[in-house]
Specification:
There is one protein chain. This protein is an alpha/beta fold and 160 residues long. Helix content is 38%, strand content 23%. A hairpin with a 5-residue loop joins β3 and β4. α1 runs antiparallel to α2. 20% of the residues are buried.
Length: 160
Amino acid sequence: MPKDVILTPEGLEKLKEELEHLSTEKRREVAERIKEAREFGDISENSEYDDAKNEQAMLESRILALEEKLRSAQVIDADEVSKDVVGIGSVVTIKDEKTEKSQTFTIVGSAEADMAEMKLSNESPVGRALIGHKKNDVVSVQVPKGPARKLKITKIEVGL
């Protein structure tokens, strides 16, 4: 049984857009590459054909994975996100008690996690540690190297 994929409304839209793009434009591009490669002659020793067929297999695999994610998607409603307790959809500002540095993350499901956009998975060590805590709570997070970090929650907002 597939695991539920937790998404924000924005994440759901991104997955739908990617699926649409791959199912239409990208499929046409790959089909055209296969057609052109066939025109080179003998397909048994045609690296262009093999490459295009491999790309087609990867494309179809990604499309199936996206369809499965969308089928098992659980979309977070902004009305259900608390401003008092950290949960999926929360924008959390934390302060590292050792370094005094502050950072702000949006807690999202693992399908949307993207550190470049400061979107932290609810399944990551920090995300898991923050969920269920309130403003001014200090949480301890075990990091791969060194002692556990102490993070103080300084602000919680709704991020949807």
